[in-house]
Design a protein that fits this description.
With 677 residues, the chain is of the alpha+beta class. The chain is 52% helix and 7% strand. The strands form four sheets. The protein has a four-stranded mixed beta sheet, covered by helices on one side. A hairpin with a 4-residue loop joins strand 8 and strand 9. The chain binds zinc ion.
Length: 677
């Protein structure tokens, strides 16, 4: 089950675009400090700092046809993917990790074998489609759904293990919303012209997939309508993204019997037995109204329609590893229509990503040996300590917090665990069989393995050693239930960090990313967890009110930013990330000035230390993007558009105004600066 975590960027698969066909990592001449070539010196930094910091980079880096966006994160990912590609395309040396790496190589090879995929046609999913076909009695649905869930097909709802929000030391069972394929629940509910058109295209896409799978056109069209009706019912009962940000809104632990009473038409005993879940007495029903809606749906929907829905779920979930016609249809709707991507990425890039997603730690081990040095780890640990010190001072000095709440905040801060690079214990993939010519079956077996790993945790103590990102991932995260900050090896590279680089730039980039993750522990979501990872209110009523007022200022600020024609940022959806960006940059500046910047006064490349720190911050966000991708991001992603990730925080900081001598009425100087941390 997806674990709540808050990270610094988009998930890998979303950010990624594409690729130069090369097997060696490109030799990049990374600047020793500020990237002077990226600057647009015609723009006044006080007018639009992002444009000043990134303008020339943006002009030189339009979005390639096979990507949705192209930014500095993409550049780093390209380097990491090139390393991974080489690892899966060349035989492993003797020694540690040989088996797992060979397995990853076979997995990749099967994914690359298009002619085999083409000739296999629908054979890999034929048994699943046949099982669906055999459904006669709705009483047998729980067993069928459990089977599909084991293959990673998220039909009707999600079920798995999760950390008990009231006791973060243990794992319990959890049921949550799911089962609809459009990116956002609101896509099913909104009545504006764009949404209506999108749904019409969605029905056409489902019809096309059914037709490709052999259904007569009339039946395909009727089935597609039935599918959308079912998904709409699920979406209607689902909670929206903003409401889900409150951990209390999805915390309803109850006895299994209570869940069963709510859903008389769906047997959880049958489901759990078929899923091979360990026995459990308590289950967190994230959204009780959602499971009630599932129950209603099961009771009221003709079996033929349910079968159409399940067929669609299987086809949709497998489409990218099915023959070309299916993969192309899937790309056309979910990437071209929804995100503006013009062409599919080269196959090798998709297959490297697929291998990383399914066998990530098998490749991660080899990646770390190749791409991660002790200097990076030592520097990061030092920066983490500096940033934590800055946060201690920041909490201590907060004029709006009482001593009582400060004490609790400090206790939480002291309990934060930091992890750099990669897990201490590597996952053992011995149980997964990988065949060099079975792309989809390999994925199904890998997902079954994940599923069993996940279910086995029910009733067990929390494993604090696990990572939620693979080592090559260009991202970082904070886990509120573990109260830890995590920096995979993949992100510890330029432009975020470079050993021996100007410290001002390292602090403005990597330092602010560390500060960002740390601040997540105290954002609108994180502040509702204590240092042990339990959802617990440790705020006095007055301090909580002051916090909400400060947070509302940030929400209103970002809600004013336009990211595409007719699209603005949702300040409430992005509140946690924006709070983390604002706090992260401030902590980085404090830490730098107290540490390596204490005596640095000299200009380098014409910029003062503070100016270089702010440029380090902004230049990591340089990104070209398509309007469709911006619109999709604004609707579904808790991170703001990169332009405002750069500009939003600096415009709240008098330190920035001073560093660039901005006039009081300059666009980058907000008359009412917002500040939480
Ligand atoms: Zn974040």
């Amino acid at each position: 089950m997806r674990r709540a975590l808050t990270c610094v960027a988009l998930p890998l698969a979303v950010v990624l675009g594409a690729a130069q066909a090369r097997t060696q990592p490109p030799r990049v001449e990374e600047p020793k400090g500020v990237d002077l070539d990226a600057l647009d010196r015609k723009t006044d930094p006080c007018t639009d700092f992002y444009q000043f910091a990134c303008g020339n980079w943006l002009a030189k880096n339009p979005v390639p046809a096979d990507r949705r966006t192209f930014g500095r994160f993409t550049e780093v990912q390209d380097r990491n993917l090139a390393v991974l590609r080489r690892l899966v395309e060349t035989p492993a040396k003797e020694g540690s990790g040989q088996t797992d790496r060979a397995k990853a190589a076979d997995y990749y090879a099967a994914c690359m074998d298009e002619s085999k995929i083409e000739s296999a046609a629908l054979t890999p999913i034929a048994p699943d489609l046949a099982t669906i076909d055999e459904l006669v009695n709705p009483d047998d649905l729980p067993v069928l759904v459990a089977h599909l869930h084991a293959l990673g097909v998220p039909a009707l709802f999600r079920f798995g293990s999760q950390t008990d929000k009231g006791d973060a030391t243990r794992q319990i069972a959890g049921v949550d919303q799911g089962g609809f394929a459009l990116p956002d629940r609101d896509d099913y509910l909104k009545s504006d012209e764009r949404s209506v058109t999108l749904r019409a295209k969605y029905v056409a896409h489902i019809t096309q997939l059914f037709t490709l799978a052999g259904a007569p056109p009339d039946k395909a069209a009727a089935d597609a309508k039935a599918v959308v009706a079912i998904e709409t019912a699920l979406a209607t009962a689902a909670l929206d993204r903003v409401a889900r940000r409150d951990p209390n809104a999805t915390n309803h632990p109850m006895g299994v019997n209570e869940l069963q009473r709510m859903t008389p038409n769906f047997s959880w005993r049958k489901y759990a037995t078929a899923a091979s879940a360990p026995p459990f007495q308590v289950v967190n029903v994230a959204i009780p109204d959602f499971v009630k809606a599932v129950d209603q749906l099961v009771a009221a929907t003709p079996v033929a329609d349910l079968k159409a829905y399940l067929r669609w779920q299987v086809l949709h979930d497998s489409a990218d590893l099915l023959p070309k016609a299916f993969a192309a249809a899937d790309f056309d709707f979910f990437s071209r229509t929804l995100a503006g991507q013009q062409e599919p990425p080269p196959r090798w890039r998709r297959c490297v990503l697929e291998t990383d997603a399914r066998l990530g730690e098998a490749l991660g081990k080899a990646f770390v040996e190749e791409a991660f040095g002790p200097q990076a780890k030592a520097d990061m640990l030092q920066m983490v300590q500096d940033i934590k010190n800055a946060m201690r001072q920041d909490i201590d000095a907060a004029p709006w917090m009482s001593g009582e709440t400060k004490k609790a905040a400090m206790a939480k801060l002291e309990a934060v665990v930091d992890r750099i690079g990669y897990p201490d214990t590597w996952r053992d993939y011995a149980a997964i069989r990988v065949a060099r010519d079975e792309a989809l079956a390999n994925r199904q077996r890998a997902l079954q393995f994940d599923r069993q790993r996940d279910l086995k945790k029910i009733g067990q103590p929390v494993d604090r050693g696990e990572w939620s990102m693979t080592p090559p991932t260009v991202n970082a995260y904070y886990s509120p239930s573990r109260n830890n900050i995590n920096f995979p090896a993949g992100i510890l590279q330029p432009p975020f960090y470079r050993a021996g680089r100007d410290a001002a730039v390292n602090y403005g980039a990597a330092g602010a990313v560390i500060g960002h993750e740390l601040t997540h522990g105290f954002d609108d979501q994180g502040r509702k967890y204590d240092g042990a990872g339990n959802v617990r209110d440790w705020w006095t009523a007055t301090d909580a009110k002051s916090y909400e007022e400060r947070a509302a200022c940030v929400a209103d600020q970002y809600s004013g930013y336009t990211v595409a024609p007719d699209t603005k940022i949702n300040g409430r959806l992005t509140l946690g990330e924006n709070t983390a960006d604002n706090g992260g940059l401030r902590l980085a500046l404090m830490a730098y000035l107290a540490g390596p910047g204490a005596r640095a006064k000299d200009k380098v490349d014409g910029f003062t230390p503070e100016q270089r720190l702010f440029l380090g911050w902004a230049q990591q966000w340089c990104e070209s993007s398509r309007p469709e991708a911006e619109r999709l991001k604004a609707q579904t992603n808790p991170h703001s558009s990169n332009r405002y990730r750069a500009n939003g925080p600096v415009s709240n900081m008098p330190e920035f105004q001073k560093a660039f001598s901005c006039k009081a009425n300059a666009p980058m100087v907000r008359p009412q600066a917002c500040r939480v941390w």
